[in-house]
Specification:
Length: about 260
């Protein structure tokens, strides 16, 4: 549990890693400040939930207004737990991508989550940003490595200019997995509880390793101190809430 003071009752948080970059809009939403009733209470930003669409629209309006942006400048995708990456220069709702990249000022990109890892990347030299949705399938499928490779190929991205934020997701102790999932992770990221014999996977560490292997300095990698399960009062958790819950957004963009 984090010991530093953070206002979790706010509708969003700005990762400290990015606070030095005044040219960025970057935020990770919480579940506070919206209009949705239980079990989506209250800032449900997920389009593909059974919450009333009017509630989600109002929640999104509030969120984007709070961060100094508009939903009309936002690009996202219906995520499929795959590893396909979209380079986009236009706002809109796309289909089948779990990572988005852009170098267009004034355009926000983002991913929705409720236990999976939201990952935001900034190439400070080439002025490129990426938003990645990494569940366990995306993590073992190497979606972060593929996103970095795409940025390197398309823009000449180099590790020393990269800043990466690994956002709020399910914590290791809460993410119990079966043997068929565990065997797809490197052993470093699997832990068996000696008392319960439960096997758990560490999504934050697995994705951190990818950035380290790419060469990103550890000082340029930020990791959320929070858990969607342990801090469920402040974040949505699909697992903790039995699948009936809202979604958060993690967004990044270069100011226009």
């Amino acid at each position: 549990m984090p010991t530093h003071s953070v206002d979790l009752k706010a509708p969003y948080r700005i990762p400290a890693l990015f606070s030095r970059f005044s040219n960025l809009i970057v935020a990770e939403s919480t579940r506070h400040g919206g209009v949705s009733p239980a079990p989506f209470a209250s800032l449900n930003l997920g389009i593909n939930t059974t919450d009333d669409a009017a509630n989600v629209d109002e929640n999104r309006r509030r969120f984007f207004e709070a961060i100094g942006a508009s939903a009309s400048q936002f690009a996202s995708s219906h995520q499929v737990h795959g590893t396909d990456i979209l380079y986009t220069t236009e706002p809109g709702r796309f289909e089948g991508y779990d990572a988005l990249i852009t170098d267009k000022p004034g355009l926000l990109i983002g991913v929705t989550v409720a236990d999976c890892v939201p990952i935001l990347i900034y190439d400070s030299k080439n002025q490129v940003v990426a938003a990645v949705h990494a569940g366990w399938r995306g993590t073992v499928g190497g979606i972060v490595a593929k996103t970095l490779a795409r940025m390197q190929e398309q823009f000449g991205t180099r590790a020393k200019y990269c800043y990466a934020y690994i956002g709020t997701c399910i914590d290791e102790a809460s993410f119990e997995v079966g043997s068929e999932v565990a065997e797809q992770f490197a052993p470093d990221f699997i832990r068996v509880d000696p008392y319960t014999q439960k096997t758990c996977a560490n999504l934050k560490s697995a994705n951190t390793r990818i950035f380290i292997d790419f060469g990103v300095p550890s000082a340029q990698i930020g990791i959320s101190a929070f858990s969607t399960v342990l801090n469920n009062d402040d974040y949505f958790s699909y697992r903790a809430e039995g699948g009936k819950t809202g979604r958060m957004l993690a967004v990044v963009g270069i100011k226009g």
